[in-house]
Model the fold of this input.
Amino acid sequence: MTPIAKADAESSVLLNEEFQTDDEGQRISSLLTASNDLFERTATFNFNVARFKIRGLGSEYGTMYLNGMPVEDLEDGYISWSTWGGLNDVMRVNNNSSSLEPPFFDFGALTGSNYIDLLASSQWKQTRVSFAESNRTYRHRAMVTHSSGMMENGWAYSLSASRRWAEEGYIEGTFYDSYSAFISVDKKLMINIS
Done:
């Protein structure tokens, strides 16, 4: 075994004693987010403006589902991410698979599959207000999100709204003004079969 392979193997082993410390919660939270592929996130977000394509394939070779419904264009397979732009807080509950790895919702696709769960009962219980500055297409973004989580009466609701705007983006003469809204309501039915 080479020294590099040995070091990699040793660094990925977590000992039981490491989880017995006071900062146990911090270690677990970092493990839960470790599955996000850094290369894939960087390539799809930062380099897509330069027409970079993972494995040389376009987005038409991937699949995207919102609550189990495919949202690719029927003619060319293009995924129009701008359709739900500005709704970041409610789009976080997702399940991704890379390449042809078969996920629970699809057979897999060459550039991967993505499933986003928009049910109000799946949303994190939160009230969040945020404002951001940017130097990209828009200059300002304001978002408000409130999700109740599943309440004792069996109902759950989630609301989100945002505005992104710029009098002029990073290219002269590019005006931008975009509004987004999201509403989801769930009711958990309890049926007694006797």
Notes: The chain has a mean pLDDT of 76. DSSP finds three helices and eight strands in the chain.
